[in-house]
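INFO  loader      accepted 1 record
INFO  loader      residues=263
INFO  predictor   begin
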Amino acid sequence: MENTVISRIVLAHHFVSPPGWCSQDYARVRLFSGIVYVLEGSAAYIMADGKRFTVRKGEALYIPKGSMYTTQCGESEGFIHMTVNFELLGGREFYPTLARKKLSHPIHFEQLFTRLVHYWTVRHPYYHERCIGMLYELAYVLLKELTQPGGPYLDRVRPARVYLDEHFQEDFELTQLAGLCGLSEPYFRRLFQRVFHETPAEYRRRLRIAYAEDLLLSGSCSVTQAAQLCGYSDPAYFSRVFRRTTGVSPVQYIEEHLRPGTT
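INFO  predictor   done
INFO  writer      dumping tokens
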């Protein structure tokens, strides 16, 4: 999957909307992607199709480019929020639809957003690069909350995930993961796939091949060495898995990414 890339930040500000405030700035179309975080009060978002929802203190919104809506405060309560609008390369959104989320750790998100707005406002040298870095972190935190897998089942299989993350390069039987979680093997496999949308084998293979890509591009490893460092004792089998995962052989991958003009 291709990465989502921020090309530029358009604005980042702290905004105080008084009671009764109404904005139709995006009633026709929103030209940029955006993230909004509510500091105090609430506001209604009325979408072009008539659907309506209210955002409140501690909630964040991800708003894709092309969204159409009106924002409106009630007559007795204002709306204090921070907004960052940005452009993404190729129209590839961080998240496909407008999404609202009550954050589980709002203090960190609020502090990060506040710093982004501050650096955007004072505009010291290289402020744009610094703000883009913080925007990536902001998007990561929000996306992690929006896509957090598994609900109550996550804790049941968390020991297996931690072990895989720390030992994916090692050669071990995946059946032992069920024991780490205190579950039977069939139930563990069903639960793991339900939570992470891939089997334990697929999860480990994804980590191994991603690591192999880095090793191959480092220039310090041959294909055989990369295979061994990723947990594959048979280089030929490693090459087959690599091709099946990436669509090219390890040698082709190196040639495509390290040919002149690509570094």
